[in-house]
C-alpha cells in the first residue's frame, strides 16, 4: 500500500502520514510546531497545508489550528508516561495513538513537501551518514527518500477524511456521448509541470519564488497561449484581405509587394 492520495490529479500526503514517511524524523508533536509556524528555523514555512472541504474541494488549513492539536498530543504523552511508570505501556503505544491526534482530511502537496524536507533536514541526513561511516558502514540507499509504503491498516488511519476527493492517478470522466476523457487531469498535470519547471529554474539561482510569483507566471503563460490560439484562428477571409493589401498592379501584371 502507499500513503499518497491523488487530489485533483496531484499527489498529496496526509499529515497523519508525515511521521511515517519521514521515518519518525518528524514526530507528531514537532510536526505541530513546524506547521503551526512555531519553529524558529522555519523549516516547513514554505509548505502549504490544506483541509478537505466536502463535497469535492479543499481550503487552506490555518497555522493556529495546530495549537489545540499540540495540546491534545501533550495530554496523550502525559497519560502514556503515567502508564509507563506502572509498566502498562510501551513506545509502540505512542506510535499507534499519536497519529490519531493529528487532523483527518488534512494534507500537504508531495511536490512541495518532499524537496523542502530533503533540503531542511540535509544536516540530519549528513550526521547519520557520518555516524555510519565511523562504524565502517556506507549510507543506506533511500535514507533521504520518503518512505511511502505502508500496511493497509496504517493507510486506513492516514486517509481518513479523504473519501470525497481522493481518486486514482488515472482519472477518467464520462462525457454525454459515453466516451471517456482525461482532459481535466491532463490540464492539471500540464499546469503542475509548468509550476515545477518555473520553481526549479529559480532555485538553480538560489531564488525561491512565492506562491503568488508562481501564479503570476502561470497566468502569463496562459495569456500568451490564449493570444496565440486567437491569432491562429484568424478567419481565412481576413488573411486574404491582408494579402490583397500587399498586391499592386504593375504594367498590367499583379505583383506582390
Automatic annotation (TrEMBL):
* Source organism, top-level taxon: Bacteria
Q: What is this protein called?
A: Uncharacterized protein
Gene source species? Candidatus Accumulibacter phosphatis
Amino acid at each position: 500500500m502507499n500513503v499518497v492520495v491523488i487530489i485533483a490529479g496531484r499527489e498529496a500526503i496526509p499529515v497523519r502520514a508525515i511521521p511515517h514517511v519521514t521515518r519518525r524524523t518528524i514526530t507528531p508533536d514537532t510536526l505541530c510546531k513546524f506547521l503551526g509556524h512555531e519553529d524558529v528555523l522555519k523549516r516547513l514555512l514554505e509548505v502549504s497545508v490544506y483541509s478537505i472541504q466536502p463535497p469535492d474541494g479543499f481550503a487552506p488549513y490555518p497555522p493556529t489550528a495546530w495549537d489545540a492539536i499540540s495540546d491534545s498530543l501533550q495530554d496523550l504523552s502525559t497519560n502514556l508516561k503515567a502508564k509507563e511508570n506502572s509498566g502498562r505501556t510501551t513506545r509502540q503505544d505512542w506510535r499507534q495513538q499519536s497519529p490519531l491526534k493529528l487532523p483527518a482530511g488534512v494534507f500537504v502537496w508531495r511536490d512541495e513537501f518532499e524537496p523542502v524536507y530533503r533540503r531542511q533536514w540535509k544536516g540530519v541526513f549528513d550526521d547519520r551518514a557520518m555516524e555510519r561511516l565511523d562504524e565502517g558502514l556506507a549510507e543506506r540507499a533511500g535514507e533521504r527518500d520518503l518512505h511511502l509504503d505502508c500496511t493497509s491498516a496504517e493507510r486506513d488511519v492516514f486517509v481518513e477524511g479523504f473519501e470525497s476527493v481522493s481518486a486514482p492517478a488515472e482519472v477518467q470522466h464520462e462525457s454525454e456521448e459515453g466516451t471517456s476523457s482525461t482532459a481535466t487531469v491532463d490540464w492539471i498535470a500540464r499546469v503542475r509541470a509548468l509550476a515545477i519547471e518555473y520553481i526549479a529554474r529559480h532555485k538553480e539561482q538560489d531564488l525561491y519564488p512565492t506562491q503568488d510569483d508562481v501564479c503570476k507566471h502561470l497566468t502569463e503563460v496562459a495569456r500568451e497561449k490564449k493570444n496565440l490560439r486567437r491569432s491562429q484562428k484568424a478567419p481565412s477571409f481576413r488573411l486574404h484581405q491582408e494579402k490583397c493589401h500587399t498586391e499592386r498592379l504593375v504594367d498590367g501584371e499583379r505583383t506582390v509587394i
